[in-house]
């Protein structure tokens, strides 16, 4: 019971980082989006490598411990490739989902639909991890990390996918706020062939449901 409470508290803390006000500090040099993502990957690896952290929240599961070990034993020294995932503004992911479930979205206020659209897209990696079951979901949620920063580089919400030769990919979702404010949320993807599997999934989705999910995956490194 105590462990469940700890998990809930940590999960809330991860969410609150996006709303936490920051002190006004001038940075000598702003990090690029690429560097922001790499910094969060380092933080997540630190969590995965800390036995005390894993024990505190996830000690009851052998499967979770084994997967945590696989993550920390991976080579994250340099990405083999980085992809940028963006959604066509004319395409609605939640509308596709509603059509499949025969649900009328017109009953929702426009502002709510817009926020749902953003959250569903930016949570793409988390949704993908559900395919692997509750153990991977629990682990990746506890290792997830976020940050808030100022940037002129981010023009629209997007997701960076960092891939590595002998390690799990990492998703970093970048979300625009007001002015120059931006937020980033990083998550391990427990699928080493995620980019190729994503392309295959989008093609199969189009063939099976005769609907196109307009999500573009472009290699940027």
Strand content: 15-25%
Element order: H for helix, E for strand: HHHHEHHHHEEEEHE
So what's the overall shape? globular
Average pLDDT across residues? Answer: 82
Radius of gyration (CA) equals: 18 Å
- Quote the distance from N terminus to C terminus: 45 Å
Low-confidence stretches: 4-10, 12-24
Strand arrangement across the biggest beta sheet: 2-5-4-3-1-6
Helix content: 40-55%
Number of strands: 6
Overall structural class, as computed from helix and strand content, comes to alpha+beta
How many helical elements? 9
Describe the structure.
It is a single chain. The protein has a six-stranded antiparallel sheet with strand order 2-5-4-3-1-6, sandwiched between helices. The longest helix is centred in the first third of the chain and has 17 residues. About 9% of the residues have low confidence. The chain is globular and about 50 Å long. It has nine helices and six strands. A hairpin with a 2-residue loop joins strand 3 and strand 4. The protein starts with a helix and ends with a strand. It is 48% helix and 19% strand. With 221 residues, the protein is an alpha+beta fold.
């Amino acid at each position: 019971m105590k462990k469940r409470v700890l998990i809930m508290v940590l999960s809330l803390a991860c969410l609150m980082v996006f709303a936490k006000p920051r002190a006004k500090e001038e940075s000598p040099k702003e990090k690029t989006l690429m560097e922001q993502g790499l910094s969060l990957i380092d933080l997540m690896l630190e969590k995965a490598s800390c036995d005390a952290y894993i024990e505190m929240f996830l000690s009851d599961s052998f499967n979770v411990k084994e997967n945590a070990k696989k993550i920390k034993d991976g080579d994250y020294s340099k990405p083999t490739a980085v992809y940028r995932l963006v959604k066509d503004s004319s395409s609605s992911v939640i509308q596709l989902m509603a059509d499949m479930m025969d649900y009328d979205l017109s009953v929702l206020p426009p502002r709510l639909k817009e926020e749902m659209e953003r959250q569903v897209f930016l949570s793409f990696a988390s949704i993908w991890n559900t395919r692997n079951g509750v153990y991977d979901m629990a682990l990746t949620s506890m290792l997830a990390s976020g940050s808030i920063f100022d940037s002129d580089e981010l023009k629209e919400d997007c997701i960076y996918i960092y891939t590595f030769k002998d390690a799990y990919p990492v998703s970093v979702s970048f979300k625009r706020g007001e002015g120059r404010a931006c937020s980033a949320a990083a998550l391990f993807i427990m699928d080493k062939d995620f980019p190729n599997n994503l392309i295959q999934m989008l093609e199969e989705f189009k063939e099976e449901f005769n609907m196109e999910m307009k999500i573009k995956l472009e290699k940027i490194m």
